[in-house]
Design a protein that fits this description.
The protein is mostly beta strands. The chain has a domain at about 40-80. Helices cover about 0% and strands about 15% of the residues. It contains no helices and three strands. The chain has strands spanning about 45, 55, 70. Strands 1-2-3 form a three-stranded antiparallel beta sheet, with no helix packed on it. A hairpin with a 6-residue loop joins strand 1 and strand 2 (about 55).
């Protein structure tokens, strides 16, 4: 156990880094067509309790290998023709 503690100096002990990652992920129809499961048990589609949108992943969303691909939402109006 350390006995002496050194305070953190916000001017010298903080580093800011930024990494830009550009990656190409092939998007196939099988990701959103139901190939991976049937609602509500789709493993690659995360359903939110608010019901406003869903997030689509290339692997089961709980996997550490999962990449978020896109969010999707659908709306309709009873007055639209």
């Amino acid at each position: 156990m350390p006995i002496n503690y050194e305070p953190i100096d916000a001017t010298t002990d903080v580093a800011t880094t930024r990494t830009l990652l550009h990656e190409v992920i092939p998007l196939t129809g099988s990701i959103v067509s139901g190939t991976y499961g049937v609602f509500p048990n789709d493993e690659n589609i995360k359903n939110y309790s608010h019901g406003m949108f869903q997030s689509v992943y290339d692997y089961p969303f709980l996997s550490s290998s999962a990449n978020h691909i896109f969010d999707i939402t659908v709306g309709y109006s009873s007055t639209s023709g």
